[in-house]
Structure prediction request, 380 residues.
Amino acid sequence: MRRGLPELVVAVLLAVLLSSYVLFTRQVVRDLRAEGKRTTEMYARVYRGQIDTTETASTQALLDLSKSIREQGVSLIVTDRTGKPGPSANIPADVAGDDTRLRAFAHELDLENPPVVDSLVGEIHYGNPPIIRWLRIIPALQALSAFVLLLAAVYIVRTRGNAERERVWAGMARESAHQLGTPLSSLSGWIELLEERGTDAGTQSALDQMRTDLVRLDRVAHRFERIGREPRRDTVDVAELVDRLGNYFRQRVPTLKHAVSIDILAPDEPFTVLGDAVLLEWSLEVLVKNAVDALAGRSGRIALATVHRPEGGARITVSDDGPGIPREVRGRIFDPGFSTKKAGWGIGLSLARRIVEENHGGTLRLLPTDRGATFEIILP
Prediction:
C-alpha cells in the first residue's frame, strides 16, 4: 500500500461526511423556513377570509388553503364513511382516477400516519412531508459513514504499528548483516592462509567445503540486507539456481544411516525469469530444509524439479516422500508463527510465500498428495 493512501481515503470520507451534514442541515433549514412561511400565509388567508365581507371571500380563502396544502408536498386522500376515495392531493399519476389503487395507496399512507377521522368528511389519509424521508435516510447514511471512518482509523493505526515494527525488524536485520561482514572477511583470510601453506587432499577437501559454507554465509548475510528494500528485477537463471541449491544440500544430508537422496530435474539449457536471485534461493532453501527435517531419522528422497510454463515463466516443485503434513493443519502452514516442529519459529513458509507472491508476483502452494509433501512455486 502506498504511503499516505489510507490517510487520503479517510480524509476524503471525512470531507464527504462533513459536507453532506452541512448541505443536509442547510436544506432542512430552508424547508423549515418555507414551511413556516406557508403556515403564516395560511393563517393570514384565514384571517383575511374572516374579516372580508364579500360573498366569495370564504370560498376563495378555502381554495387558497387547499393550494397551500398541495404546495407542502404531503400526499392526501379523503375517503367517505364507506371507504370510497374522494378528493386527493400530491398522489402519483398512475394512482389518480383508479379507486382500487387509491384505496391501496390510502392504506400505504395509513402505515406512515394514522388517518384523521372527521364525522362529516370521513377519513383523511396523509403521508409525511419530503423532509421527513430525508431525515430518516441522511442520518443513517451519516452514521454508516462515521462507522466506516472509525474502522478506517483503526485499520490505519494497526497497519502503521505493523509497518513501524517491520521497519524496526528490517533495520535490525540489515545491521546484523553488516556486523557479520567483519568475521566473514576474517574467516576468508584464515582459509586463504591455510591454503597457501599447503595441505593434503583430505584437508584441502575440508577447506573447499569450508569455503563453500563461507560463500553461503555471505549470501545469507546479503539476504538480510534485502529485507525492507524494494524488490529487484534481475535476470535469474532458474535452472542454475535449483541445481546449485540441490548440490549444496547433497553434501550435507545423511549418506550412510538413514540416507537421504536429492534428485534434481532441470533443463540442461538455461532459462530465466525476472526477480531477485538471493530471495528466490531463500524461499527454495526454506522448502528444501523443511523436506530434510521431515526425513530426519528415516531414509527418503527429495526431488527438486523445474520446467518451462507454456505461457511463460517457470514452475518449481519441491517434494519429499516423508510422513507428509496432517490434513487438519494444511490450511495453516503458511500462517506466521504456526509450526509443526517443537522448536520451530513458524516463519519459514510464511517468509517463502511472501517472497514468491509479494516480491515476484507468483504463487506458492501445497499440492494435494497421497504421500509426503509437494510444494509448488509458479513464477511469471
In short: The first helix runs from residue 5 to 51. Residues 84 and 99 are 7 Å apart (CA to CA). Helices lie at 5-51, 57-71, 99-112, 130-197, 201-226, 238-250, 277-294, 348-359. The two ends are 22 Å apart (CA to CA).
